[in-house]
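Q: What residues go here?
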C-alpha cells in the first residue's frame, strides 16, 4: 500500500511538473490513462488516483466523453504588502476581473463584531457580500463589515470597484495596516452557492482586520477562495 502511495504521488508530481514547465499548456488534452500506464509502467488505478488528485486541486479538468485537459491557470493573488486592486492583479495575468455585489445590509453589532471592530453592542454595521470573478469564473466570496460611523451609506457602485479606494477617496479613511489569518476550510452551502463549487470542496479562508494610522479598526472581513481556482504569492524581504 505504501508503494502504491509512492507511485501515484510520483506520477502526480511528474505530471504537475510538466504542467508548470508548460509542456502541457492550458486547454491541452493530456495522454489517455492507458498511455500513461504504459509510460510509467504502473496500473490504471495508480494513474487514475494521481489524475483524480490533480483534478481536485484544479490543475486538470475532465470533460465527459472527451478526456482530461489541463485547466486554466489559477488566479494568483499577492498576500505581501501591495496597493494593487484585485482588478489590477488579475489584469496582469491576462484575465478580466469582475465584482458582483450580492447584498449591502445594515445590521446591529453582536458580541462577535464588538470584539472584532471595537464597536458597541447594537451599533449599526454595514455588511457587504461580494463575489469576485476572473473571466466570468467565481474565485472569491467575501463578507465585509464596516461600522456605519466610519463610512455611512456605502453604495453598490463603491463596493463594485474597490472598498479601500472608496474609503480613501470618498470618506477620507486611509487603511494603514491589515492583519490576515489564513487557513483551509470546506465549502458550506453558502460558499458552494456563490463560488459554484461542490459542497465540501477545499477552500482558502482568510480573515482580515484593517486598521487606520491611529490603529482604529476600520473593517473586518471573511473571504473564501476556491482552492482549485486560486493560489497565493508571499514575498518577504530580509534586511542585510
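A:
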Amino acid at each position: 500500500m505504501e508503494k502504491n502511495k509512492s507511485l501515484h504521488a510520483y506520477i502526480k508530481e511528474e505530471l504537475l511538473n510538466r504542467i508548470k514547465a508548460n509542456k502541457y499548456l492550458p486547454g491541452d488534452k493530456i495522454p489517455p490513462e492507458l498511455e500513461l500506464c504504459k509510460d510509467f509502467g504502473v496500473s490504471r488505478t495508480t494513474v487514475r488516483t494521481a489524475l483524480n488528485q490533480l483534478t481536485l486541486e484544479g490543475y486538470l479538468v475532465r470533460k465527459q466523453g472527451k478526456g482530461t485537459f489541463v485547466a486554466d491557470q489559477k488566479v494568483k493573488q499577492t498576500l505581501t504588502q501591495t496597493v494593487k486592486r484585485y482588478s489590477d492583479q488579475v489584469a496582469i495575468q491576462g484575465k478580466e476581473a469582475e465584482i458582483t455585489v450580492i447584498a449591502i445590509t445594515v445590521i446591529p453589532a453582536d458580541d462577535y463584531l464588538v470584539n472584532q471592530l471595537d464597536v458597541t453592542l447594537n451599533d449599526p454595521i454595514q455588511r457587504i457580500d461580494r463575489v469576485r470573478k476572473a473571466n466570468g469564473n467565481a474565485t472569491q466570496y467575501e463578507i465585509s463589515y464596516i461600522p456605519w460611523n466610519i463610512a455611512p451609506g456605502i453604495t453598490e457602485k463603491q463596493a463594485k470597484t474597490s472598498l479601500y479606494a472608496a474609503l480613501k477617496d470618498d470618506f477620507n479613511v486611509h487603511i494603514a495596516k491589515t492583519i490576515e489569518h489564513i487557513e483551509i476550510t470546506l465549502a458550506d452551502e453558502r460558499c458552494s452557492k456563490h463560488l459554484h463549487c461542490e459542497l465540501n470542496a477545499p477552500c482558502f479562508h482568510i480573515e482580515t482586520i484593517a486598521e487606520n494610522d491611529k490603529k482604529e479598526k476600520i473593517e473586518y472581513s471573511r473571504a473564501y477562495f476556491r482552492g482549485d481556482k486560486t493560489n497565493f504569492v508571499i514575498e518577504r524581504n530580509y534586511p542585510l
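A: Context that may help when evaluating the design: Strands lie at 60-63, 67-70, 75-78, 97-108, 124-134, 137-147, 177-186, 202-211, 217-226, 230-233. The two ends are 48 Å apart (CA to CA).
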